[in-house]
Amino acid sequence: MSHPSTTVPRTGGAVPHGSRGPRSPRALPRFPQPTTLLTAALTVVTVLTGCAPGTGGGADGDGGGETTLTVWSWRPEDAAGYERIFDAYEKRHPGVKVEFTGHKNTEYPAILQTGLTQRSGGPDVVQLKPYGPIQAFIQAGQLAPLDEEVDLSSWPEETVDAARGREDGGIYGVPFALQTLGVLYNREIFAEHGLEPPETWDDMIDAAKKLKKADIIPFATSGQEPWVLALLRETMGATRVGGDAFSQKVLDGTTDFTDPDYVASLRAVADLKPYLPSDVTAVGYTDAQTLFTSGRAAMYPGGGFELAPFRQANPDLDIGYFDAPVVPGSPVDAPLTPGFADGSYGVNASSQNKDAAVELVAWMATEEFGRAFAEELHQIPAVPGVEPTDPLLAAMLRGYQDHGTPYMMGVHFGYGDPLGRDAEGMALASLLLGELTAKEAGKQVQKDVAAWFEPKG
């Protein structure tokens, strides 16, 4: 049976998601339908206002003049959407102006580190990477605690954990998006070659062979970027380890990354090499995106965060989605949808407009903001109770609700140096280059992660 491109195939048989052990899918409740676009826009604007760094007169200072909030982000591609959000927010908050600054993703960590050390002139509200990367800023006292300012008590713990201090358990940000992983595909190419979303792993390989014979790259991905390879392993190989059940065993010391199931998941990705771009380890992230948006590649294993830039690059691109089929030999018998919270917005502890910034960030936790975020930025909002209107994003969210599993290397093993995703990505690159066997790659991941991780048991 084929699966419509806007729905997630097969439900059930999933490993419950959660960052502190198995959870029921109730953690991500069914969301009501969004309200009007106007309401959404007003909500987003309100939220984003709290994200802008303060460079102007102060709401917390002399009480007069205009308060300028500045927000820093690693997504300059979202600037137009945020401008619309800010315009609406400013209309509802006279005397407040919001300025959005998007920095290049690869340069953002260093820029943010410098900005948060400034006593003046730094940002008011900052976009923060989830889980491990936020910890250094928390420990340095550079982020304002939000426990008493924002109520996230009704949010799923695995979402809030993305902005929680590892040592003190405090909340230092409001998560803004959920990301799910699956396989995006070009529906026009599939139709032209008589293909449908695959039911089984063998179906997918057969489709890849047919596409390659037609001089179409089956899967576009970047082997140059460790984090992209880690997402590829999770997208294609989550079933082979059994989803979160495997993560929990590593966390409690029952097993580690030399486990045969994990090694097999690495091997499953390596087996896809004939269907990846030539010299894949030299292919950059933006190059991989272009291969898909230009129609040179038929499939793209990745996240929902790719949809908006893909459509911007090629508005005529007809994109479908399916969960990666179960890898043969897997401990589970149905597909899984990996997911994670993609960062948060926090307040600079040195902001000269702290009260206004906190008010803005608190607004980001409301359904109003969530609707606006979904409408303007075309992503899955982290706010419970809000479902995206985009059919593909809605399908991805339903997949995570029905048969989701946490993105292992981000949610569970993203707290040390090297990050789990980087350790896994570098080992995968060596595996694809033929420098390591799958077993040796598993040993390398275990060695790198063990440098900072100690099992609970």
UniProtKB/TrEMBL annotation:
Keywords assigned: Signal, Transport
Stored InterPro entries: Bact_solute-bd_prot1, SBP, SBP_1_CS
Region described as Disordered: spans on this chain: 1-31
GO BP annotation list: transmembrane transport
The keyword Heme appears for this protein: no
Record family assignment: Belongs to the bacterial solute-binding protein 1 family.
Official protein name in the record: Sugar ABC transporter substrate-binding protein
Native organism: Nocardiopsis gilva YIM 90087
Lineage: Bacteria, Bacillati, Actinomycetota, Actinomycetes, Streptosporangiales
